[in-house]
Amino acid sequence: MESIGPARQRRPRLGNANDPIILTTPIYYVNGPPHLGHAACTLAADTVARLHRARGREVFFQTGTDEHGISVERAAAAEGLAPQGLADRNAATFQKAWQALDIDPDRFLRTTEPAHHRAALELWRRLAEAGELRRGVYEGFYCAPCEAFLSAEELDPGETCPVHHRVCEWQREENTFFRLSRHAAALRRLVAETGFVQPASRRAEVLTWIGRGLPDLSLTRSSVRWGIPAPGLPGEVLYVFGVDALANYLTGLGFPDPALESAWRGRFPHTVHVIGKEILRFHALYWPAFLRAAGLPLPKQLRVHGHFTVEGQKLSKTAGNGIDPVALAEEVGSDALRFFALRSKPFDRDGDFSRARARELWNAELAGGLGNWAQRVTRLVSKHRAGRSPVPPPLPRAEEAALLEAATALCREADERTTSFAFDRALQSVARLVQEASRHLERTKPWALAGARDPHSVRRFDEIAAAHLTALRSATRSIAPYTPRAAAALGERLGAVVREGPAPYPRLP
Fold first, then answer.
1. Given pLDDT bands bounded at 50, 70 and 90, which one contains residue 6?
2. Can you list the alpha helix ranges (DSSP code H) found in 364-454?
């Protein structure tokens, strides 16, 4: 069953938490290679998926590539390629990039797949059958990279796109329209009265769009040849960012296969779409309206992230300040790239990416923090107890009890923040635990007890070491979704036989 993904999603569930965890990123447009923004969004979903899997939850994580539209058509022509050839090459680039960053989706979906064509056309059929489509003429400014018509209010000076900073084209087409205006009241209730849009700060923007009025949405293009042919409309294709791209979230769960209907209908309402703010309109307005009109369930939530600047400047091809996430991962390691992307700024806000600042945080919180703590503890136990993990006492002393309580509270806090997409704050919680542990080591000085033979010193060393190993294992589990390679290696060293080893988080120059 190509649309369901590997068997991993059928892992046992945790306790009474019977709801599956369905996470999706946007399918990324293949007119160019992946950049830091793509990586940060996909890493966010991967990190949350990893934590839920570690808890025993049923998880389905999907990402992929969006391969139709005028920008792909033009990019292919510029290189002397067929659109499918360009799509094949660039989709492979995304897949290789995610492998290099240890991003592990259950489903990598391509919109040129036959399964996706079936899903998009079935969604179109249901909209048509429900009387939600009409013919009309659209005339206005069009941004090809956005694949969207923009109103005069949305344009920057000089009739330029506010995202791509290029002059928009004037287009006039006879198209098929979706009756979006019918759904304004329902969309207002969805956004204003539920937690559908997260963070809450984004809701006002969506409500403003609704308040201005929702014109019907053009759903076909006659000026584009590379797309899914619109049924019964020779020479027209489905608008790439309408029914085509958005239907991918249904495709991945098995829609419209009747044999899988109970599965996708039951799972789709638990879906969290992880998206950038630049595509909020598509997901907060068009997508729920399509689903509502077609009689399909709505997803659970949108998790909207902000944008990166780089070294204080907006990302721009002209400025040449884009960041290749694969090249950066090759330079510093995949764990460090993952940490950089999620620690550099709050996920839901705009923020700056600075190589110097990212290295500073890594060296302080991981190399000199968690990594240094792990090295100190494993070295003591390996050297003075031959790697034997000390057995903790039934009732730890007050000092160790305080450390263990801090470990429990801060790791729980870190995990909760991770599942709430507050990644920078989750990593700060782990850093606070490291600080608590460091203070405890300095107070108790287990190295001063290590060589002693008297029963009291031996027992005291074991009590301290046992508490630190317990706290360190908890911290390692909480950091594992962020730095899976280093955490896996460290976890192996913290088993029943505690071993020394190379620095789990090497210092970056």
1. very low
2. 371-384, 398-419, 423-444
Task: Determine the length of the chain.
Answer: 509
Taking the C-alpha atoms of residue 169 and residue 212, their distance in angstroms, rounded to an integer, is 23
Between 6-10, 62-66, 392-396, 420-424, the lowest mean confidence (pLDDT) is in 6-10
Q: Are residues 397 and 266 in the same domain?
A: no
Q: What is the pLDDT of residues 222-239, one digit of tens each?
A: 989 999 999 999 999 999
- CATH of residue 63: 3.40.50.620
Same domain, residue pair 260 and 365: no
d(CA 484, CA 336): 10
Q: Residues 237, 299: one domain? A: yes
Residue 287 lies in a domain: yes
Q: Same domain, yes or no, for 44 and 183?
A: yes
Distance CA 277, CA 306 (A): 6
**Domain total of the chain:** 2
Q: Which residues face 21 on adjacent strands?
A: 59
**DSSP code at position 388:** B
Rounded Cα distance between 123 and 285, Å, is 16
Read off the pLDDT of residues 319-345 as tens digits, 9 standing for 90 and up: 556 789 999 999 999 999 999 999 999
Tell me the catalytic residues.
35, 38, 143, 146, 161, 164, 314, 317
CATH of the domain at 391: 1.10.730.10
Condensed to tens digits (0 to 9), the pLDDT of residues 378-392 reads 999 999 999 999 999
Q: Give the number of other Cβ atoms within 10 Å of residue 263's Cβ.
A: 16
What domain range is 203 assigned to?
7-305
pLDDT average, residue stretch 466-485: 98
